[in-house]
Amino acid sequence: MTKRAYKYRFYPTSEQAQLLAQTFGCVRFVYNAVLRWRTDAFYKEKVRVGYVAANARLTAMKKDADLSFLNDVSCVPLQQALRHQQTAFKNFFEGRARYPNFKSKRHRQSAEFTRSAFKYRDGQLFLAKCKEPLSIRWSRELPSDPTTVTVSKDSAGRYFVSCLCEFDPETLPVTSKMVGIDLGLKDLFVTSDGHRIGNPRHTAKYATRLAKAQRRLSKKRLGSANRAKAKKRVARIHAKISDCRMDLLHKLSRRLINENQVVCVESLKVKNMLRNPTLSKAISDAGWGEFVRQLEYKAQWAGRQLVKIDQWYPSTKRCSNCGHIKDALPLSVRVWICPACGVNHDRDINAARNIKAAGLAVLALGENVSGMEQVSVSSSR
User: Which of 53, 71, 134, 269 ranks highest by number of CB atoms within 10 Å?
Assistant: First the structure.
């Protein structure tokens, strides 16, 4: 059995919206207060506080008369916030993440409920201390009863519920098709078969509307109701851009996994590439990292194989016909002729073919490859 989250949008009543606002505020308050307490204990007293002590701190906070508002909401989201904080500290001390940040009320708000804090029956979801079920727009049925429910509200004011369920992934029938893809900016990616998927450039498409909304926002008085409305308009445009990008990436990744048994990609260090001030906005808009992440878990579910080629493999400068490697190939050169064999190459298609060849070479050597594992092919540039 595999766990998967199913996300739906819902429309709360006025009472539910008020209760969720209180829950979000209490979760944020507890997380920030305990984080400040743990930080002071570490830097002032050189004491590392664990989850048990943090949970005891929460119990003491709820007994404080000045913090009695913490008892007005379910205790489960507050405890879950401390569990997430403990995970954040573990990742920090093991070198996988930065030091935990304080939560802000200006960004996405969320609260997690376990089975003791919600009920799911007859296709209806009841949260703790809610008399009415959530008005959820069920786009598809749940495969099983949810084990965890996460309620969130984004900056655009939209409410979502994410249900974590167990499901049996469907393994797709084996096919003989294999493909290599080269990620880019002019085209989102180019396949080794010569197919080009154009880059829709969602940010540029909504740039005029976004700039207009941001100008209006900048002219509103701080703290006014009109500024809050203008800020929500800006957030809705950003949400529209994000939704369009995610929708396209999900469709493209699903199509690649359905049609091919092996998908070969180049492992790019996107965070390092974002340091380029000229291309950072375009790279972020393309969503390369999210695209590869979707390919990884969808390949695992479908029984496909995803092969990641080392980032230093000279896929662009290498001739896919004879293997000759050019000394230099500027980004402005889109078509080049191999000086060794005289074959005329399209830059992107040639790179995709080399990526495919390198990935298949790894499989031919008998390496243990799975959808979630990274396989590197080392070569000199």
Answer: 134
